[in-house]
Specification:
The protein is mainly beta. Helices cover 12% and strands 41% of the residues. The N and C termini lie far apart (67 Å).
C-alpha cells in the first residue's frame, strides 16, 4: 500500500526548517530533509518540520520521536523532546509598513500559537479542548508545521547524538533524521541578569505575588 502511494505521489511531502523561518500555508516545499542541530548542555534547541499535502490531502497526521543516542550508547531521552503543532491565525489588517529592509508580512494566515501534543503538566493526551494538536488533516497543497524543542540535560556527554522523528498519516510515513552536536560547556542554571517586569498598574494578585517573590529572592542573594 505504501509503495503504491509513493508511486502515485500521495505520501506526505516533508522538509526541515530552522526555528527562525516563517512557513506560510502555501509555501513551496523546501529541500532540507535532515535536522542538523548544535546545543550546549542545559540548553533547549528548536527546529521545524513542515508537512505539505499532495493531491487528495492527508488524514490522521501525527509525529513521533525516539531517543537520541551517541556512538557510546548514551542517550538524550525522548522525554526531553517536546512537540507542538503551529496554529495558523488569520492576521488582519497588515502591520504598518514604514519602508526599509524589514518589511511586514501581508495580512492573512500566519503560524502563531504552539499547540502542545500533550498536557505539559501531566503528559497525558489533551482531550475536549477547542484546539487539539494531533491527529490532524492537511488540505490538498497546503502546509502544517510541527515545532520541535530538544532539551539537552546538563549531565549529557559531549558529542554527536542521532535519532529520528517520524511523520505518520493514513497516506504513508516519512522519517526525519536528527543529528545533534552537544558542545563541551553548559549554560548556567540561574540567569545572572536581573529581570525587569514592566508592570505599572494591576489589580491581579498573581502579578503582585510574583513581584514580591522576586524582590524576596534578590534580598536573600544580597545577604549571602
Amino acid at each position: 500500500k505504501r509503495a503504491l502511494a509513493q508511486i502515485l505521489g500521495s505520501t506526505p511531502i516533508v522538509w526541515v526548517a530552522n526555528s527562525l523561518e516563517h512557513i506560510n500555508k502555501s509555501e513551496i516545499a523546501g529541500t532540507e530533509t535532515q535536522a542538523i542541530l548544535y546545543a550546549a548542555k542545559n540548553e533547549t534547541e528548536s527546529f521545524q518540520v513542515a508537512i505539505k499535502a499532495p493531491s487528495g490531502g492527508l488524514t490522521n497526521v501525527n509525529t513521533t520521536s525516539n531517543d537520541l543516542s551517541n556512538s557510546s550508547g548514551q542517550t538524550i531521552s525522548r522525554a526531553g523532546i517536546t512537540l507542538y503543532r503551529e496554529n495558523y491565525a488569520n492576521i488582519t489588517p497588515q502591520s504598518p509598513d514604514w519602508g526599509g529592509t524589514n518589511r511586514p508580512l501581508p495580512a492573512g494566515l500566519h503560524p502563531d500559537a504552539l499547540m502542545p501534543f500533550v498536557d505539559p503538566r501531566t503528559g497525558a493526551d489533551i482531550t475536549g479542548a477547542e484546539f487539539d494538536a494531533v491527529p490532524f488533516r492537511v488540505a490538498d497543497g497546503t502546509n502544517e508545521v510541527i515545532w520541535v524543542d530538544i532539551y539537552v540535560p546538563p549531565t549529557a556527554s559531549t558529542g554527536i547524538y542521532s535519532g529520528n522523528l517520524v511523520v505518520t498519516s493514513d497516506q504513508g510515513n516519512v522519517t526525519v533524521p536528527v543529528s545533534l552536536t552537544v558542545w563541551n560547556f553548559a549554560l548556567p542554571v540561574k540567569p545572572e541578569e536581573k529581570s525587569d517586569f514592566l508592570i505599572w498598574e494591576t489589580s491581579n494578585a498573581d502579578y503582585e505575588d510574583e513581584l514580591l517573590r522576586k524582590v524576596d529572592e534578590e534580598a536573600k542573594r544580597k545577604t549571602l
